[in-house]
Structure formats: structure tokens, C-alpha cells
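Field log, afternoon session.

UNIT: design team B
ACTIVITY: writing a sequence onto a fixed backbone
BACKBONE:
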């Protein structure tokens, strides 16, 4: 793999803005100012700060991944996808466990409201959460077989539905790319710099390892947001990638 420029490395990082209110997220944005990362808004911040916060990120020029992981009946997901598309985000997601029709409905919801000529947001599907271990998958969720096989089944279904990619662990990137093609995007949480606390994550890799697997985007939250110096934490991750 060719060396990444600093800017390209930053663009592969999605910073998870997991905060209870807009002010805390804005403080982080201030600390990271000038570093061209993707910003990820998940349910904690979206339920607290809503569409206005997302609009503000877009006004500031950020690429935005809205990580709301929709999982509902097809008609409801279609409506949700239309509402999300109107926010102008660059990427959003659904759970592949909702099935083929539900994922197709998400795309229909996008197309129903997308202005002519506008770039549509990437729509991706969560395969198996990166907090899910092999034991949890088999014994609690009740899916037998390997995690890799379960992830691949959902990735193939997402591809069949016409989605742009999946959320998975960096550990599964190579098999996903082999099965679904190199253009099928992989967005990978479960990133932990060497020695960092895994917390509730189960299927983890370091930033460098994830890059070597060929991941398109790595989602990183607490290793940056819980650091006493988030800017230095992010810069040392970028340094690891170039
Ligand atoms: O399978 C998944 C899907 C989404 N996430 C989200 O990514 C970040 C990870 O944050 P860390 O603090 O780096 O663990 C978080 O917003 C999750 O909701 C995921 O971890 N796994």
C-alpha cells in the first residue's frame, strides 16, 4: 500500500462525537480544528442536539456520518431515510438484520427526496456490532457459526440490496472486500491504539492494522474523546497511518 498523506489519513478517520449535549461536541470540534476528519453523530448526540447540530457541522464543511442504525419495518425505514437525506449528511446506516426489503426501502427513501443532480448519501448496513464476541453471537443472539460467516452473510445481503458498504470490525475487512468487491465500502469501529482500553469493544485492531486490512474508514471515539489532550491523541493516530 502507498503511503498516505497526512490529509488522506485524517480523511479516513471518523471521529465519534458521543456526547450528551452540543456544547461538549463543539468543544471537541474546537480542539480538533483544521484536521480534516469525518465527523460521526450517533444516537446520544442526535437525540440531544438533533438536526440543528448536524446542519451546523455541514455549514462548517465537515463530512458527516449519521450513525442512527435504523432497524424497523420497511415503510418506517423508508420515511426515516427520506428525513435523514434532507439533512444533507454524507453517510447514514441501517441494520442489515432488518433484511433485504428493509435495506432496499432505505434507498427508496433517499431517492424519493433527493434533488435532481444532487449526490446521494452513502447508505451502509451494520453487520454485527463490534462489541459482539463469538460467544455472545452464538449463546445470546442465537446465531450459530463463526462471526466472520455471520458478517459475510449480512454484507452480501447489503450488497444485494444495492447499499454502498457495511459497518464491521477491521478483522473482517479482507473477507468482505474479497466477497463484495473492493469498491464496497468498509467502515470499521473497534479501533484501539496499542495499549488503549478496549472498553466494551470486542473485535478490535490498532489503526495501523486496520489500515493494512484495507479499511476505507475507521471510526474512533474514546481513544480521542476520553483523552486529556484529544488533539494530540488524534495526531498520534494520524502519525501511525502515514
Ligand atoms: O458495530 C459498531 C457500530 C457502531 N459503533 C460506534 O462506533 C463508535 C465507537 O466508539 P469507541 O469509543 O471508539 O468505542 C461508537 O459511536 C459506537 O456507537 C461501534 O462501536 N460498533
Amino acid at each position: 500500500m502507498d503511503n498516505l498523506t497526512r490529509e488522506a489519513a485524517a480523511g479516513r478517520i471518523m471521529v465519534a462525537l458521543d456526547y450528551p449535549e452540543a456544547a461538549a461536541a463543539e468543544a471537541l470540534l474546537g480542539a480538533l480544528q483544521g484536521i480534516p476528519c469525518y465527523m460521526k453523530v450517533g444516537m446520544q448526540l442526535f437525540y440531544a442536539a438533533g438536526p440543528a447540530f448536524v446542519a451546523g457541522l455541514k455549514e462548517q464543511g465537515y463530512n458527516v456520518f449519521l450513525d442512527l442504525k435504523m432497524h424497523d419495518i420497511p415503510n418506517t425505514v423508508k420515511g426515516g431515510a427520506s428525513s435523514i437525506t434532507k439533512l444533507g449528511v454524507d453517510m447514514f446506516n441501517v441494520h442489515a438484520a432488518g433484511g433485504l426489503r428493509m435495506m432496499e426501502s432505505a434507498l427508496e427513501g433517499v431517492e424519493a427526496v433527493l434533488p435532481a443532480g444532487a449526490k446521494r448519501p452513502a447508505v451502509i448496513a451494520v453487520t454485527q456490532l463490534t462489541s459482539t464476541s463469538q460467544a455472545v453471537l452464538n449463546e445470546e443472539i442465537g446465531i450459530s457459526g463463526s462471526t466472520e460467516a455471520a458478517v459475510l452473510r449480512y454484507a452480501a445481503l447489503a450488497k444485494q440490496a444495492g447499499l454502498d458498504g457495511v459497518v464491521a470490525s477491521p478483522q473482517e475487512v479482507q473477507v468482505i472486500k474479497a466477497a463484495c468487491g473492493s469498491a464496497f465500502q468498509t467502515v470499521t469501529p473497534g479501533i484501539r491504539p496499542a495499549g488503549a482500553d478496549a472498553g466494551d469493544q470486542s473485535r478490535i485492531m490498532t489503526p495501523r492494522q486496520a489500515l493494512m486490512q484495507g479499511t476505507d474508514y475507521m471510526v474512533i471515539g474514546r481513544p480521542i474523546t476520553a483523552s486529556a489532550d484529544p488533539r494530540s491523541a488524534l495526531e498520534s493516530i494520524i502519525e501511525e497511518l502515514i
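LOG NOTE: The beta strands are 13-16, 38-42, 64-70, 91-95, 122-126, 165-167, 185-188, 217-220.
NEXT ACTIVITY: expression trials, pending approval
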